[in-house]
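Record format v2
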Amino acid sequence: MTKAMEILNSLTLEEKASLTSGKDCWRTVDIDGKLASIMMSDGPHGLRKEENGGAVPATCFPSSATIANSWDEDLIYKIGEALGEECLANDVQVILGPGVNIKRSPLCGRNFEYFSEDPLLATKMASGHIRGVQSKGVGACIKHFAANNQETDRFSVNAIIDERTLREIYLSSFEEAVKEAKPWMIMSAYNKLNGDYCSENKYLLTDVLRDDWGYEGVVVSDWGAANEPVDGVKAGLDIRMPGPVPSANAAIVEAVKFGELSMEELNKNVLRIIELVEKGIASKVADYEADMTAHNELAVKAAEESAVLLKNNNNVLPLDKSDKIALIGAFAEQVRYQGGGSSCVNATEVSNLLQALDDKNITYTYAKGFKTEDDLIDDNLVSEAVTAAEKSDIIVMCMGLPFRMESEGFDRWTMSLPINQIELFNKLSELGKPMVVVLFQGSPVEMEWSKNADSILAMYTGGQAVAKACVNLLFGGANPCGKLSETWGLKLENNPTALSFPEKGTASYVEGVYVGYRYYDKKKLDVMYPFGYGLSYTTFEYSDLKISATDISECDTLEVSFKVKNTGDIAGKEIAELYVEPTYPSVSRPVRELKGFKKISLEPGEEKTVTMTLDKRGFAYYDVETHDWQVDTTVYKIHVGASSRNLPLVGSIKVNSSRTNKAFFTTDSRVYELNANPVSKETLNKLLTEDLKLDISALSIDLPLSKLVGFSGGKLSVDMLDRFVSELNERIK
Ligand code: GLC
């Protein structure tokens, strides 16, 4: 018997029930002499351990939206390690992150805290984060499970999502991370999913999470997201936070006493809680000291690797220290490095661009240009900025989304930057000087104003060291290599959710699987910057695509290799992307979907061979008839390249599905189902034309068999059809 089982057996019913809600805002209940308490704290990109009305100092790393642009699982693993170390140093046993909700609309206020519009990229980055944190004996808590894709009405909105969309998009961003990285905890979301609150949703917390994905950890509610206690226990919710909630504990005790809830059901949840606590306690390290200097250096590197060079006409970047620079924009001084809400970190050190430039003895003239507190144009600030720019050779304008425009708790109301920034940009661009724009934002903005910018560098919400990283990148100390983890549409109106997002009460995900690039590609819509896009100070060339077979079964794995060459004169990193396109799908599917990616470093002139492997899920869609992943027998194109819309290499592969051919059809009330084995067209034709002597030339293969009676000119009766199906099943067993 395990120690956890012994502890479980020592507990009274009341003690067991008490464990199903928190002790206070951040800790689990301790039971004298039997079970200690562990502490959990936010947040995804830095420890936010509340103390004395504030939060302990901690390293503020780039937010998830930012680090996702690095497409670098090793890098985020390292950040996870650092988060784990800072948890050990602050006696915290679980850190509440990563957030992996899909970016359904660019307006979601918490998009800065989420990875991507694509579930594969999101789940891979989440996996690296979780593995890194847990390598230190600290737990991670993937969140918010599931479909928490808006802040408006988040405590009660009912997300209505069809099963296929749910599986392929909104659960997929959790799936591999849960299966592979095994987070100690999963946080159930505030919202409802298809009618049931996530914290009491058996389909989510048991059918999918435990029965399908085999998850053995603890489900914790989001803070205040739990509702009816007994329903929660039955559905698979283990701990409701925050605590204590005596009324909920009492309801559970009553339910067991009156037989509404069995002790076995309660024991399952309580055992998981005990195992979690035991794990947390066992990993404690007394007097642990984290290397905060090293963590800050890691934060610099992470911000450098996550920045995305969106434009660099005439190679205006990198700058030279001797350039006469006008540094314009309040974000140079009030640098924007994180979003608002529970993820907010009390950063150990935050430098701004002025300090970062001073540290490198780079001269510049600074002018604020605009205020961030509101959108009002300040003529004095504008004229100061124009004057500074007139005396310079090159303008570096720092723009972005003010802190007040992106946060947990509300959604953005626009995709535009504040008018006081755009107006200033227009004024400065009239001077006809080289213009570099640096963006500090947690999600995409409309860029129709930017055509006069020579270079654009998106730093996103790059964490406490974003300014240092930005200066390194601007002056060539580092070479930008980030690629967008989300599409930047030309305008909000082009987004499939634009007419309705955010809905109150019920949010109908009518766009289905067509989220982000899946939508824009399907509709063949132009975009400002595509998913997976990003430039470098060097150039890369793709060649020599090789595919390990021309014809495989769905159970086989396929190896894809290709070469990437650095054709420029400085070292750089390239993120190579692989997309799969079904040529003749049996259901409506995105044109192509990301199914692999790899980041490689290349010296000038260096060429490397990259290899990726595809398995069944590389070709599959989620089939709602069989409630499982299925592969169509058809040819698939394999695209490889630098972004979702720059795919110079293409190959093809025929995949033969072992899919059960189920021809369901009804005659009267009877349902005929062909046997489990695939029915070849030849077999079917022989039986119909030779044995039953039916002229089926005019019939299309997907005709339900029951229709044959009507097409047979009286030759085929329902009884004959009965015999025919029985005979068919006999022959193809
Ligand atoms: C918040 C957030 C969640 C956070 C929790 C604790 O409401 O939704 O992400 O971890 O509560 O602060």
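The two ends are 47 Å apart (CA to CA).
Residues 42, 96, 143, 222-223, 342 surround alpha-D-glucopyranose (CB under 6 Å).
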